[in-house]
Structure formats: structure tokens, C-alpha cells
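Moderator note: this is an archived Q&A kept for reference. The question asked for a predicted structure of one protein chain; the sequence and the answer are reproduced below.
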Amino acid sequence: MNTVNPNWPENRPFALFLSHDIDQIHDREMFRVLADLNHIRRIWTRGEQGDAGLALRRVARALFTPKPAEQDFRTILEIEAHHGFRSTFFVLHDSYWSRHGPRYRLACPELRRIADLIRAAGGEIGLHGGVRRLDRADLYRESRAALCEALGGEILGIRNHLLRFSGAATWAAQAAAGFQYDATFGYSDRPGPREGRMWPFFPENQGILELPLTVMDVTLFRNLGLAGEAALDAAWQAILPVIGAGGLVTLLWHNNYFNEPEYRDWQWTYEQLLARLAGHKPWCATGAEINAWWRSRPHN
């Protein structure tokens, strides 16, 4: 039975923060095709988890009939809208040619169309902080300004790429760059809240609000090697304590694993989690809305 919770609007029993990191958007893109070919090589030579046949089909599709860049985002937004949910998308900004850089440029017209789709659905755009920019307030600030210029709107939130985080130095640099909230604080090797943090919190003397992570797709399917019902169960077991505590459930699912036959479990698990969560009637909001609400509470 759901219980009221004065921590959240309308006394909802808990809050839900749906988020997506945008590392790549193009089907026909050199680094993406090379990564797929390397993935196939590792399947054949090292026994890496995956389906070489489906991966080969993806490479052929990318070369001859690439899917539109907007397609995966339309799918995500439709899945979420079915439950009345909205989400935040973090756009990566770093050197394009770097190993962990974005596989698109901020000026590409497809990205602007994607941002328009997200905002039309009531979603939010945040910054995905680049690996080469970690803990550099000046470079965080540069990325924030570049994102504002390219896509318009106000950029209030950040999550660092690969969940890179070094404690107080990260929060201090993010706050100095003008961000109001961060969503990096989480584990990549196991599901569940880092340090048991189930609610938003203000790191001491930092001025920035942290929205802690609960479950990430890559953790389940790549780092733990789970699939299907096992992945769903592991995610749900990590989520249940947060629901029970009336806290903030944060999900991170990457856009480029939707509409992909090789990764169908990734999309299916997200759909199943949202259906289960909807049954508990959470307050689902963007990072900016959660930030505004938490800061407005009397004890803050």
C-alpha cells in the first residue's frame, strides 16, 4: 500500500528521476561503426557477451540504411509518456576525437531537433561532463556556455561521463561553473544507491544539490552480464528499499540501446521498470524540478 510522504509534492510516496546520457546519436558514424566491428571481434576471439550476427546487421544498417537520429528519442519519450512521466537528457561535450568524447558535435542539426523533441515533451537538457574536463570549473563553465549557445535554454544540471567523480573537488568545480545540481553520485559496478544515499542531499559547504543514482543500464547488462528477468529482478531489488524509504529513485538508460535487436533486453527492462514504478504513483519530475522542489522545502 502506498503511503503519503510530505517530502514530495502532493504527498506522493516517493520521487522518480528518469535520466539518459547522450553519448552518440548517429547511426552512420565512424567511431560507432569501428566500435561495433571491435565488439564483433571480441565476441569471436574473447567470448564477449553479445550477438555477432545482430551486430553485423547493425553495421550493415549503419552503412546502407541508417536509422534517423531522432528515432531512439521518440521511442524513449513515447515509453515515458505512456505513464505520464518526463525525463532529463544529459548532452556530452568534450573533444570529438578523444577516446571518450561525444560522437556528434553540438552544432549538428540533428541534435537541435532532438533537443526540441525533448523539450516539447516537457523534458530537460543537462550537461554530460566530459572526461577531459573533470573537476575543471573553467572547462565545465565553457561546456555549459557551449550547450546553451547550441541548444538554447538554461542548463542547471550535470552528470559526469562514465560517472567520474572525485568527491568534494567535483562538487566544488560544478558549483563554481554555475550548476545547481549534479547526478553523478552512484555505482557503475553494482545497482543500488552509493553509500546508501536515497534522497537528494547538499554536500557540505558546496552549494550544489546531489541527485544520487539508483540503477544504470550498463551496470546490469555489461558490467554484471545480466539479461532479461535477471536484470529486471536485480534492478527492482535495488529500487525497492528506496521506495520503502520514500526517497528518490534515479534511473539512467542510454539512448543508443533502444530500437536495437542485440540489446532488446535493455529496452524491455526499462519498459518493465517504468510499468512497475507507475503502479506506485511516484512524483516523476525532471532534475531541474526536483532541484527546485528540494531547495524550497522549509528545512532547507
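Archived answer notes: The chain has ten helices and nine strands.
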